[in-house]
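Rotation project, supervised by the postdoc (A.L.). Task for the rotation student: set up a whole-complex structure prediction and record inputs and outputs verbatim in this book. Inputs entered:
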Amino acid sequence: MSIIDIIRRGKKLKLFIFIGIPMIYLLIFFFIPFLIAFLYSLGMFKQVVYQYVFVPEPSLEYYSGLMKFPGIFKSIQRSFYYASLTTLGTFLISYPLTYYIGVKLEEKYRDLAVLIIFTPFWINFLLRVYAMRFILHEAGMINLILRLIGIISEPIKFLGTDTAVIIVMIYSYLIFMVLPLYGVLEKLDVELLEAAATLGATPFKAFIKITLPLSLPGILAGSLLVFIPAVGEFVIPELVGGPNTTTLGTIIYSFFLRVRGVTGWGIGSAAALIYIVLILVASYVYMKFVGGEVRLG
Amino acid sequence: MKLVDKLLKIYTFGILGLIYVPIVVLIVFSFNESKSKVVFTGFTLENYYRLVGNFRVWESFYNSIWIGVVVTVVSVLLAILMAYGITRYEFRGKTIIDSLVLVPIIIPEIVEALTLLVFLVILGIDLSPYTIIIGHVAFDVSFAYVVIKARMVGYDPQYEEAARTLGADELRAFTKVTLPILAPGIIAASLIAFLESYDDFIKTFFTRPAGFMTLPVYIWNMASRRGFPLDLNALATFVVALALIFAYIRNRVGKGVYL
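Outputs recorded:
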């Protein structure tokens, strides 16, 4: 065996340790389960006594079962409605915020400001949702304040409505929009804006022509980070919503953990697969759309 | 434009304050004598006595912590291997592998959770705390990888080569030179990995054995009963104190890593 062979073999062994071990882990516990769940949703695993056997006859039984589920289309539509408003809401709230922190605020205070935004998100997510439910209640703080300033005379029943779900979703997902936006705005070269001003651009025009296009990657990343999980959200509609706030997420959840059994899981897996496909299509269309806008500008 | 800046400033401070309001309200009313959510009728520590005496809460908390620690150690080790391999070696399919590692970050957690559950059940593997750990590691590797690789890319391999020239073998060069330089990245990655596991609800909920609870699962069980158990308000005080400690540590060791 030549020396080169030994070195080559050494490299292969190292590659196996460094790349192989983590990839095998992800393959077994992440990618293969996807494939299995896909086959499961096609009815290709049948339960025989306590074991599952593979039956190579795909059927769309679970998919049609899902389509026959009352209100399924309304729920999918609602999931996208919630996710879109959450994405828009988090964007509108965090853009001015991150712009101020990343561009206007003195550099020495920036880390502190980011830490202040960050800290509440280290409190358990479920506890934050519970806190929102506490203040959104009919006899809660928000209703009290609205009544004191005279906007309403009767308490509003927020809990159980779309409004409550969307408010809590915006609150919970805010950080996923803030971080990527801050990432691009903090790197923004202020000299570009000064150059624009010297050349006679109004601050507004400089903002439209320079700041906004340069923050586009952050906007894109932020909206995908919010939108993709928001479509499948089930904790928030379950905790602050009601019978009229079923979403794709709550449907998957109830088929899996309430209906259970082979059928429940089959339909649940089918719903998850449909979720992934819809998300991929939506993200693709969105990126095409935003990308197209950049070229126009 | 001065006016716009001023408005922006007021707005920013307003939002920074507002995001704390729900939690502060929750904590304030944990000391309330009555069940009112708006009127403070009198100071009491009763909810805290109940919380301290509640064995289930502390058991769940203990489970969250030990699972979080195991998950962090395993996923950070895997991420170090991966980040080192990707930044130090050239091989075919490198870009594909680099992006495959990131897939778990993008895939919605509920889908990850149910595919893992189906997989485990079809293989006939009984659900246990270890199945929860397996699930958490699968997404934490990706988070830790992003952070450690960022640190790795910014570091000059010449230090390592210098160590090799001076007679250190690859392992020694790695432990004596590369690891200390990577340390801040590893600490930041560990914090993120721990928090992701500690706060995880969905994947835990799907892959836990019956009756086994972590802190988020416990909170879910209490909160999904539609009432307003004031023990939860008291628990919030405890959890917020923990979050402040995390924030402090994070500020000391992991500057510049936001994930």
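Student's summary: Residues 222 and 228 of chain B are 8 Å apart (CA to CA).
Supervisor addendum: DSSP finds 13 helices and no strands in chain B.
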